[in-house]
């Protein structure tokens, strides 16, 4: 009699445990997708800021418009769970700041914001300042050319 009662206990225990395991696996999968998308947004922001830093002869306004045009295509098609992705670009004389934001409806609406920045390169100004420093160190007047 006792043996007959314990035969069904495994089925009852499994029916209580399986939904919990499935829930844990779903949460783990959602978090993996979310972290993947954050990584993609971070690398896209860094790449876009680097592209902007290499464009040395454009004005701030031209560069900002160009980067805004490049931003959607850079992250498009690479994201797995984030939607409503938006890119913001800010260009000053010395810095380029690119940020991506996104949101997903999974797990209560997770949000992501990734921001990267790069220093604008101006090789001409840098070379001139180096020459000025060398002239000051050597004692030559700064108005004379080498």
Jot down its keywords.
single chain; 3 strands; alpha+beta; elongated; 146 residues; 3-stranded antiparallel sheet; 4 helices
User: What is the H/E order?
Assistant: HHHEEEH
User: Can you summarize the main beta sheet?
Assistant: 3 strands, antiparallel
From the alpha carbons, calculate the radius of gyration and give it in angstroms: 28 Å
Integer tally of domains: 1
**How many runs of DSSP E, i.e. beta strands?**
3
Strand content: 15-25%
* Shape designation: elongated
Spatial order of strands in the largest sheet: 1-2-3
Helix content: 55-70%
Low-confidence stretches: none
Structural class: alpha+beta
Q: Could you tell me how far the N terminus lies from the C terminus, measured between alpha carbons in angstroms?
A: 107 Å
Q: What's the pLDDT, averaged over the residues? A: 86
Number of helices: 4
Give a verbal description of the structure:
It is a single chain. 57% of the residues lie in helices and 18% in strands. By secondary structure, the protein is of the alpha+beta class. The chain has one domain. It is elongated, with a radius of gyration of 28 Å.
């Amino acid at each position: 009699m006792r043996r007959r009662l314990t035969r069904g206990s495994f089925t009852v225990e499994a029916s209580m445990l399986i939904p919990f395991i499935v829930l844990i696996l779903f949460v783990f999968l959602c978090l993996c997708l979310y972290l993947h998308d954050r990584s993609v947004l971070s690398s896209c922001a860094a790449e876009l800021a680097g592209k902007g830093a290499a464009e040395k002869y454009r004005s701030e306004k031209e560069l900002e418009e160009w980067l805004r045009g490049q931003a959607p295509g850079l992250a498009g098609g690479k994201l797995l769970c984030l939607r409503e992705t938006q890119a913001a670009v800010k260009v000053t004389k010395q810095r380029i700041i690119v940020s991506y934001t996104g949101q997903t409806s999974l797990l209560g609406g997770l949000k992501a914001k990734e921001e990267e920045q790069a220093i604008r390169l101006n090789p001409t100004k840098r070379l001139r300042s180096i020459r000025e420093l060398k002239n000051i160190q050597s004692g030559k007047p700064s108005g004379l050319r080498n």
